[in-house]
């Protein structure tokens, strides 16, 4: 954020614009996350059918995790290929494993 | 140089140096000592097992003690000998191979070692405190949940602590390899040993949590009255088997892949040819790592998962044989037409190829689910996994030690003694384990403390025991070799084998900052490229400048000690709640050390350009 004396003005403008854009995205996602949380809590307290509430809760949670990773932890930036591979690889393996265990143990 | 300095300093300051070190090269030495120590203990346990089985109805040890020996042999060899020895090689070599000055997390690196050591000591303390664990290295419930005494509690807490160390070490190597490669060292220019370390670290990251969870559940069942594995309380003992093998099968690949890496380094060097099919080798490694997670239930074919599950896991298991086969052929083709030098490191490599192939073949045999009903829990399985673990991992460790000894200690291990070690060990290995295939087929079950005189199992068992003594002799000659070389050996140059990869670009002894200037990597086998173009060493990627290095710290040792103390508290609180005080004190030590680590700023130190130019820097 501090002025970088070496960069040319256009460079600086570009960086500023980018920062601004990013800031906007963060504010929007932050607001959305608060909304999601309110939705989640009201759904639970409203005493709706479990079969309806639980899947929606899970979807909301997954979206929130995505927001966290991509907008707050900057995974949308360049240079995050390896973390993405590890992240999705690990999730895939964990998902398959849990699924198989469920099928094998409780079926 | 470092030895003369060590002689000048007192024993005390040298001890302090090693207790506090965060230098990956010294941590490698620590892993070597720790792993070697437990390898000897595990070996003695194995000899006791073999003596007990030398004749029918023998009573050299009692049935209960036999169970303890057997359990501790397996647990020690896998967790406390093979893993740390592999970590010794990784620590000694990987940062050098990628042209880094250190690992990404030097502090964690040291913490990983001390956790392993104290976990291992806790586990072995059980011998003196009422009996070792006796439920097999697999600790199947409900045998493990109902085993009397504290043996299995030591298993749970000891492995939990050392497992945390392994996880930390794995994460450290992952980050190191992703972030700290020298300029030009792209992924597809990394030496195969670095590649296998990378994949193995990922396997550790994803496999060890399953063990951690399993051990926690087991701990709560045994010490805090829960019933996760207790059917009478609504639990399910098969879940333990799943958790154990979800960890356990990747674990066997965690052990074998680094050995594959070692051989992939030795063969090109001593054939004076680049590795045949480098790209195929890399993809085979990745594929083995990935498939390794899809096959765990092949250890549970006889549990009763049903034909559908058994078929799926059988096919997935056999699929692993394909990338493994690719590797075997690539090694053979690497030697094809090369100018081959045969020394001790090469002998271990050449011995590995047929031995491991036999183990792979029996692997495919036991992977055929219907046939496995015959093999399972018989000596055939014992033969299979010793062919892959001894013929693969242990041979790999010996090969790696002979190959990198001059890098780690500046001297070449004696060749004659090295050859004696190899031949006695190799012959002993096949004597011990080949006959066990047939003992298994004749119906000898594994994990029984004795057999009857009327079962015709005697001859096979005698041969097997004789073989075990050959291996012991081989190991003793190796230790003698190490002592003799340390005392009388001559220092060699930094590149005694005419090597190809970056670790041979450093002088002997390697300065603690590894590279005064980060090297520029221009292709696969970077040092070889420079040599073919007539240069002596690497082209630097940067001008000479100040080097930033981390400071040593005693905190990792203290943290691990705290967990070690807490372990006793957790184990004994079930007899007397006052032991909880010990647990709290131990955890307090851990948390206190963590607190100090967090609040105390430690920015490391700089080695100045002027000192580097003077060649000092120590
Ligand atoms: C071609 C590759 C391989 C195949 C197809 C294979 C297959 C199998 C199968 C099906 C079993 C279970 C047999 C039973 O208990 O009835 C088994 C056991 C075992 N394998 Fe392998 N394996 C292979 C390679 C390896 C490697 C590379 C290692 C270790 C470095 C290894 C270590 C073990 C161990 C330790 C056990 C016994 C575990 C126990 O019950 O205590 N295997 N293998
Ligand atoms: Cu397996």
Q: What can you tell me about this protein's structure?
A:
- The complex is a heterodimer of chains A (107) and B (618).
- Chain A has 107 residues and is an all-alpha fold.
- Chain A has two domains: 2-76; 78-107.
- In chain A, 80% of the residues lie in helices and 0% in strands.
- Chain A has three helices and no strands.
- Chain A has helices at 9-45, 50-72, 81-106.
- In chain A, helix 1 (9-45) runs antiparallel to helix 2 (50-72).
- Chain A is flat.
- Chain A starts with 8 loop residues before the first helix and ends with a helix.
- Chain B has 618 residues and is mostly helical.
- Chain B has a single domain, classed as Cytochrome C Oxidase, Chain A (Up-down Bundle).
- Helix content of chain B is 67%, strand content 1%.
- Chain B contains 20 helices and two strands.
- Chain B has a two-stranded antiparallel ribbon.
- In chain B, helix 3 (24-52) runs parallel beside helix 5 and helix 4 (63-97) packs antiparallel against helix 5 (106-125).
- Chain B starts with a helix and ends with a helix.
- Residues 1-6 of chain B have low confidence and may be disordered.
- Classes of the chains: A mainly alpha (107), B mainly alpha (618).
- The A-B interface holds A 82, 86, 89-90, 93-94, 96-97, 100-101, 103-105 and B 174, 178, 202, 205-206, 210, 236, 238-239, 242, 246, 290, 293-294, 297, 305, 309.
- The complex binds protoporphyrin IX containing FE and copper (II) ion.
- Chain A: It is found in: Cell membrane.
- Chain A: Its EC number is 1.9.3.1.
């Amino acid at each position: 954020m501090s002025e970088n004396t070496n960069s040319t003005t256009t460079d600086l403008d570009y960086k500023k614009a980018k920062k601004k854009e990013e800031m906007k995205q963060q504010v929007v996602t932050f607001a959305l996350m608060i909304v999601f949380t309110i939705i989640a809590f009201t759904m639970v307290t409203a005493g709706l059918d479990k079969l309806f509430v639980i899947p929606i809760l899970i979807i909301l949670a997954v979206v929130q995790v995505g927001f966290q990773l991509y907008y707050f932890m900057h995974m949308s930036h360049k240079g995050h290929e390896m973390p993405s591979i590890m992240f999705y690889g690990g999730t895939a393996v964990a998902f398959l494993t849990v699924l198989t265990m469920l099928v094998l143990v409780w079926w | 140089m470092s030895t003369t300095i060590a002689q000048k300093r007192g024993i005390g300051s040298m001890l302090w140096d090693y207790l506090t070190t965060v230098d990956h090269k010294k941590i490698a030495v620590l892993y070597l000592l720790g792993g070697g120590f437990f390898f000897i203990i595990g070996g003695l346990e194995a000899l006791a097992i073999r003596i007990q089985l030398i004749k029918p109805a023998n009573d050299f040890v009692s049935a209960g003690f036999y169970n303890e020996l057997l359990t501790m042999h397996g647990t020690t060899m896998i967790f406390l000998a093979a893993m740390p020895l592999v970590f010794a090689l990784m620590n000694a070599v990987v940062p050098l191979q990628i042209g880094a000055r250190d690992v990404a997390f030097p502090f964690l690196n040291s913490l990983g070692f001390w956790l392993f050591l104290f976990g291992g000591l806790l586990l072995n303390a059980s011998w003196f405190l009422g009996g070792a664990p006796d439920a097999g290295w697999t600790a199947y419930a409900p045998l493990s949940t109902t085993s009397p005494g504290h043996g299995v509690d030591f298993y749970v807490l000891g492995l939990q602590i050392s497992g945390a160390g392994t996880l930390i070490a794995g994460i450290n190597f992952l980050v190191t390899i992703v972030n700290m490669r020298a300029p030009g060292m792209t992924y597809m220019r990394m030496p195969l040993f670095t590649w296998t370390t990378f994949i193995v670290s990922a396997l550790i990251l994803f496999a060890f949590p399953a063990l951690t969870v399993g051990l926690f559940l087991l701990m709560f069942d045994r010490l805090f009255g829960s019933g996760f594995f207790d059917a009478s309380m609504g639990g399910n003992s098969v879940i333990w088997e799943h958790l154990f093998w979800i960890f356990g099968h990747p674990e066997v690949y965690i052990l074998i892949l680094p050995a594959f890496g070692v051989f992939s380094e030795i063969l090109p060097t001593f054939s004076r040819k680049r590795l045949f099919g480098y790209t195929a080798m890399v993809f085979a490694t990745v594929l083995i790592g990935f498939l390794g997670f899809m096959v765990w239930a092949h250890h549970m074919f006889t549990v009763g998962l049903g034909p559908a599950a058994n078929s799926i896991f059988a096919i997935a298991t056999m699929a692993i044989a394909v990338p493994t086969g690719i590797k075997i052929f690539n090694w053979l083709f690497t030697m094809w037409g090369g100018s081959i030098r045969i020394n001790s490191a090469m002998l271990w490599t050449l011995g590995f190829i047929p031995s491991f192939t036999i183990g792979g073949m029996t692997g495919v045999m036991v992977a055929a689910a219907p046939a496995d009903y015959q093999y399972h829990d018989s000596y055939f399985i014992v033969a299979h996994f010793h062919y892959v673990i001894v013929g693969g991992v242990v041979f790999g460790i010996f090969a790696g030690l002979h190959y990198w000894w001059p890098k780690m200690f500046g001297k070449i291990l004696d060749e004659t003694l090295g050859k004696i070690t190899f031949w006695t060990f190799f012959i002993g290995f096949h004597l011990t384990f080949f006959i066990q295939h047939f003992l298994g087929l004749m119906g000898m079950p594994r994990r029984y403390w004795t057999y009857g005189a009327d079962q015709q199992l005697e001859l096979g068992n005698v041969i097997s025991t004789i073989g075990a003594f050959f291996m012991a002799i081989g190991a003793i000659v190796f230790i003698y070799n190490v002592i003799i070389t340390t005392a009388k050996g001559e220092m060699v140059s930094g590149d005694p084998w005419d090597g190809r990869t970056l670790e041979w670009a450093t002088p002997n002894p390697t300065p603690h900052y590894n590279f005064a200037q980060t090297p520029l990597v221009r292709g696969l086998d970077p040092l070889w490229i420079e040599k073919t173009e007539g240069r002596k060493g690497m082209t630097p990627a940067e001008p000479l400048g100040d080097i930033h290095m981390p400071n040593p710290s005693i905190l990792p040792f203290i943290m691990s000690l705290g967990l070690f103390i807490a372990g006793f508290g957790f184990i004994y609180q079930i007899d007397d709640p006052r032991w909880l005080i010990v647990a709290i004190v131990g955890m307090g030590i851990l948390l206190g050390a963590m607190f100090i680590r967090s609040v105390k700023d430690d920015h490391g130190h700089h080695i100045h350009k002027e000192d580097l130019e003077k060649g000092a820097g120590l």
